[in-house]
What does this fold into?
Amino acid sequence: MKMHKNVYLVFAIVFLLSFIDSLFDAEATHELLFWEVNIWVYRFFRLAIAVLFMKSYMDIRNAEKIAKE
It folds into this structure.
């Protein structure tokens, strides 16, 4: 099943907002995939996922532009 390109953009925004929200978190650790990890590892994970979704969106958008030409 192929996801619509805008879903990637929505996920990127959601993960970016989650990253920004974590900057205001006063905790030193956070639970990530059943493990307690340092808050900076958690923040990096959220930011990396946001960047990957944004890259996927941009790749799909650029491929559609090239196909139209």
